[in-house]
Design goal:
globular
Length: 112
């Protein structure tokens, strides 16, 4: 009976590692997508920043937001973001798994 329980634990561990690898791969894809928004377009309006913060404030902390924009675009504040970067964040924040994805993206950014 112990052998079966041990095999089950190993199987669960393998499944978690596989899910973590998949999550990390998806996070890297998201990071690459966001980095493509290089900020070559015009400065963002205060109205769009307000929309962004209204979406983010109920989902992630200000610290997480700061780490995100610093890690992806090396931006020290939201006022340094360009229109296309803010629009990408607004679009992402509307997705169902945004909070979970942010956590994995931040973990991957910390590894880099």
């Amino acid at each position: 009976m112990e052998g079966v329980e041990e095999a089950n634990r190993e199987g669960e561990s393998d499944k978690r590692e596989s899910q973590n690898s998949m999550s990390n791969a998806l996070a890297r894809i998201k990071i690459d997508e966001l980095k493509e928004k290089s900020g070559s377009s015009s400065a963002v309006s205060q109205g769009r920043l307000t929309v962004l913060h209204n979406l983010l404030d109920s989902q992630i902390s200000d610290t997480q937001f700061q780490r995100l924009i610093q890690g992806i675009w090396n931006a020290t504040s939201d006022k340094k973001l360009k229109q296309d970067q803010v629009e990408a964040l607004i679009s992402w924040a509307k997705e169902d798994y945004f909070v979970d994805e942010v956590e994995v993206v931040l973990a991957v950014l910390n590894e880099q």
